[in-house]
Amino acid sequence: MTTARDIMTPGAECVRSDETVLAAARKMKKLDVGALPICGTDDRLKGVLTDRDIAVRVLGSGKDPDATRAGELAQGEAVTIGADDEVQEIMATMAEHKVRRLPVIDGHTLVGMVAQADVARALPDPEVGELIDALSVA
User: Fold this and answer.
1) What is the per-residue pLDDT across 95-106, written as a single tens digit (0 to 9) for each?
2) Whole-prediction pTM value?
3) Which side of the chain, N or C, has fewer Cβ within a 10 Å radius?
């Protein structure tokens, strides 16, 4: 049984909810990632900030990335996966919520991130197609 812990990228770094979107973008560049978990001052996960959020919801809306806080872009409760959840559960969660990246938590602690590509590498070929189809439907 392959779990999130087996396929995740460990050691995910958060952007703090009170940090600016500009600081988050710089952190994304430095880490060469397209998404960062948003963590509050209590170290609890508040959401995920993506490069698309920055482009569309900040820049495309005419907001100042140096004045907009990452926490302003957290939408509702963060969708996560447990570290010991199996690949099938990860795939189902991604498909249900139409997300390509999931923070991996152990209890309430962020332990990594799992991306669509990580799941695809862990699945047999026919299931990869199902995952991509599920995420591609608008």
Assistant:
1) 899 888 999 999
2) 0.82
3) C
